[in-house]
């Protein structure tokens, strides 16, 4: 056990008094020379550190830390995080009670130090049985704007945003998959800073501003996945978007083989985007440079290196201090045709294939409610006629998944056991009889639940994840 853990273990179970806590923090400041200021619900250690000259570190130097024990403070946290490098600033979120809120932000002086912190401190046992989560933290400078008229061009949207908001750097608009003369009904607006984006979001609240006479949707865009340079240096897969629906995988392979025959291993096309796999990285990089902006079947394509997802550092951040590991495991990108897409280059969670489309499991669903007015017409429909975005539970998603693949509905078999303290614990085994000739037709998670609902949802999630990893549809 590390020295930090030993020190934590010695103090585990002992609640420090306010005087003891103050003395420990004062000793830390005297030892390090860093200042400490508390304001707006957070306590800032450093920022800048003693003797710092020049601007703050660039984006990518900050990490998010979750699952911090509520009675742990800077005198214990700083020595742990200094193991990865020099701390520029540590911001610990605080409650009025004096406890921390379970999460913090640590900014290092370089991106390399931040990446090292993720590598060595993610899932680090900071106290006996207490494991913290560490992932990259980026100030979000991008807004998602939905419900935009589909006939508006990039320049029109850019000018409109500049009229009412400040600090606009760029607007990202994607052509409609079936009609390249139209947009997809949404855009991403990039701002010069997080503050500028936050001010713009407040200014663009629906109802206060109606460009082109339309009520738009405004929200934070989901940040792009950050992949470390070492991993990106090994990528030999290209992500190609803005393809025509009619363009075939063979046509894409032929076009990318033109500059050097035989370099493409395989192509996987999903609606209007594709992944082009190369035998060698140098050929992938060369093809990206040559093919980006070229026309295939009349469509100007965009070509970038595909971003693999590092499962060890992919975490969802929740600002109540809790974070949970993500199950993203594929080179997946979203491709929605409506105005609800908020992600740019965001791999789908528990990514599986449904009739040629990547889909999240379960997808995020807008849970708004709307009144049923007298005389409103209700039409009976089949759940299978809906889009994936209408499903919020993994149980429903698995049913939909089996239907789309012409399989029998999943069968759930319930099992139970009794815990040492007398609790009844439950687990479901999921059987999909239509794939009985395959290597595995049943799936059962390795965790037990206390409620039937949780057990069934967990079993469905496990099944979807397994199918996503081991099937080739």
TrEMBL record:
InterPro entries assigned to the protein according to its UniProt record, in alphabetical order: HnRNP_R/Q_splicing_fac (IPR006535), Nucleotide-bd_a/b_plait_sf (IPR012677), RBD_domain_sf (IPR035979), RBM46_DSR (IPR044462), RBM46_RRM1 (IPR034434), RBM46_RRM2 (IPR034435), RBM46_RRM3 (IPR047837), RRM_dom (IPR000504)
Keyword Oxidoreductase belongs to the record: no
Keywords: Cytoplasm, Differentiation, Meiosis, Oogenesis, Repeat, RNA-binding, Spermatogenesis
Subcellular localization, as worded in the UniProt entry: Cytoplasm
Domain (RRM) ranges: 61-139, 141-223, 236-308
GO biological process, one term: mRNA stabilization
PROSITE patterns reported in the protein's UniProt record: RRM
Segments of this protein annotated with the region Disordered: 319-366
Residue stretches of biased makeup (Polar residues): 319-329
A GO molecular-function descriptor: RNA binding
Record carries keyword RNA-binding: yes
Cellular component aspect of the GO annotation: cytoplasm; nucleus
Matches recorded under PANTHER family: HETEROGENEOUS NUCLEAR RIBONUCLEOPROTEIN
The protein, known as: Probable RNA-binding protein 46
Organism listed in the record: Serinus canaria (Island canary)
Taxonomic classification: Eukaryota, Metazoa, Chordata, Craniata, Vertebrata
